[in-house]
UniProtKB/TrEMBL annotation:
Belongs to the IF-1 family. Residues 1-33 are annotated as: Disordered. Keywords: Cytoplasm, Initiation factor, Protein biosynthesis, RNA-binding, rRNA-binding. Residues 21-98 form the S1-like domain. One of the essential components for the initiation of protein synthesis. Stabilizes the binding of IF-2 and IF-3 on the 30S subunit to which N-formylmethionyl-tRNA(fMet) subsequently binds. Helps modulate mRNA selection, yielding the 30S pre-initiation complex (PIC). Upon addition of the 50S ribosomal subunit IF-1, IF-2 and IF-3 are released leaving the mature 70S translation initiation complex. One of its GO terms (molecular function) is rRNA binding. This is Translation initiation factor IF-1. It comes from Luteolibacter ambystomatis. Residues 24-33 have a biased composition (Basic and acidic residues).
Length: 98
């Protein structure tokens, strides 16, 4: 029995409405604001309470690359964070300064 020819399904259609990437990527990270702070409390589920230099406290989670490399964070560590300009109460820790 000969192999069946592949059917051409025509142009692919997606459920997306409008232009833009499917997932957030590098182009969306340009909006992130980088700030430094000090860990004031370690919470459950790799969440941290971080006090910034201005005295403002934010809830921060550890980035995926830091999880992958098993970077440990303790109270008193200085960290670099990325914050969204839309929600200044949350951040992502991207680097441990010491």
């Amino acid at each position: 029995m000969p192999p069946r020819p592949k059917k051409s399904s025509g142009p692919r259609r997606s459920n997306r409405s409008g232009p833009g990437p499917r997932r957030p990527g590098k182009e969306n990270d340009e909006k992130a604001v980088e700030v430094e702070g000090e860990i004031s409390a370690v919470l459950a589920g790799t969440m941290f309470r971080v006090r910034m230099i201005s005295g403002h406290e934010v809830l921060a989670h550890i980035s995926g690359k830091m999880r992958k490399r098993f970077i440990r964070l303790v109270v008193g560590d200085k960290v670099k964070m990325e914050m969204s300009p839309y929600d200044v109460s949350k951040a992502r820790i991207v680097y441990r300064l010491g």
